Amino acid sequence: MRTEEIAAMALERLDNDRYVLSNLLFARIKELGAGATPLVNMKITKHKLADIAMREIAEGKITLESVESIPTNA
User: Fold this and answer.
1) Sign of torsion, CA 44 47 53 59?
2) pTM here?
């Protein structure tokens, strides 16, 4: 599947809200960078963390429960 298709699927899952998508991506990339295990069949050593996080969102493995669930300390 092409990157554009994955991004479109992820955006659709979040009601086409690019702001929410970018915040959710940022939060998940931080988790993956800190050692979290990917929820999709992609290796951290082979793929970019952003690509893994985007695929997780597109496949519905990562969802946004509420705005408070996104870490605010950067």
Assistant:
1) negative
2) 0.83
